[in-house]
Amino acid sequence: MKIAMMARNPNLYSHIRLKEAAEERGHELTIINTLRCYMNIAARRPEVYYNGEKLPRFDAVIPRIGASVTFYGLAVLRQFEMQGVFPLNESVAIGRSRDKLRSMQLLAREGLGLPVTTFAHDPKQTEEVLKLAGSAPLVVKLLEGTQGIGVVLADTDRSAKSVIEAFRGAGVNILVQEFIKEAGGTDIRALVVGGRVIATMQRKGAEGEFRSNLHRGGSAQAIKISPIERSTAIRAAKTMGLNVCGVDMLRANHGPVVMEVNSSPGLEGVEKATGIDVAGKIIESLEKSAKPGKTKTRGKG
User: Fold this and answer.
1) Residue 259 pLDDT > 60, yes or no?
2) What is the DSSP letter of 91?
3) CB atoms inside a 10 Å sphere around CB 78
């Protein structure tokens, strides 16, 4: 297959591994910088240009769209979809996962375990939001945050109120969630590929850090998960419509709760922690699924 990978940094571990895995299996993978693409949005002749030349038709595209360029990245991906190029993850599914509020609403509709989550627009409703979320400690999250950026732990009701009012006063959209104390600063990342959990790891935050993100100095180790945790991860991926994703869960007293579904999960932490060839399994799944024009949405919606 001729595969395009949308990625701004070709030197990231995940991107190097995906290219290696594709080439080892006899495919041709070209990394294209998402922001250097431009489009001719013409009736019945959708085209993508790159560095002054029209891109050839690809069989499949692997979108590795950074959170900071989600809007433009999804526009480019939709253009590929309109050409009939098969995406590893569809634009609509990525859009769902990047919108924290929408993703929580979709997961809640399907009855998946979630932390108590509240959302309001008016700073004057802070007291009501705090009552719904429960007493401190509480987690305040920016809707557009990623890799633990824009996540604040408020230890007291007073500090929670101050943080919420500050964010809302600045016109920033936030979620307020209960703090799952029993998780002990750890979470579970389950890699779902093609409707199956293929690798799992437990991440633990650095000393004094409640966020377990590896980018924030956390550590990871392989872990076995329970059948209900496995089922939760698979259902979360299906709800988002993602073929490949990382589902982040916490072990609460009442069962697993989903914190986030990541449509471009990093591969370095999970491959090194588990020894599993995740990149190879992703390419293998792409081989089985990629057929011209098979995209469900074809760039719509």
Assistant:
1) yes
2) H
3) 24
Residue that terminates a domain, selected from 136, 156, 179 = 179
Amino acid at residue number 292: P
Average pLDDT over residues 278-290: 95
Domain range enclosing 65: 2-95
Binding-site residues from annotation for Mn(2+): 248, 260, 262
Predicted confidence at residue 160, as pLDDT, reads: 85
Band (297; pLDDT cuts 50, 70, 90): low
Q: What's the rounded Cα separation, in Å, for the pair 265 and 243?
A: 12
Q: What is the pTM of this model?
A: 0.86
Residue numbers in the known binding site are: 141, 178-179, 187, 211-213, 248, 260, 262
Q: Which of these ranges, 18-22, 98-102, 242-246, has the smallest mean pLDDT?
A: 98-102
Annotated binding site for ATP: 141, 178-179, 187, 211-213
Does residue 103 form part of some domain?
no
- Look at residue 16 and tell me if it is in a domain: yes
Going by the annotation, the residues of the binding site for Mg(2+) are: 248, 260, 262
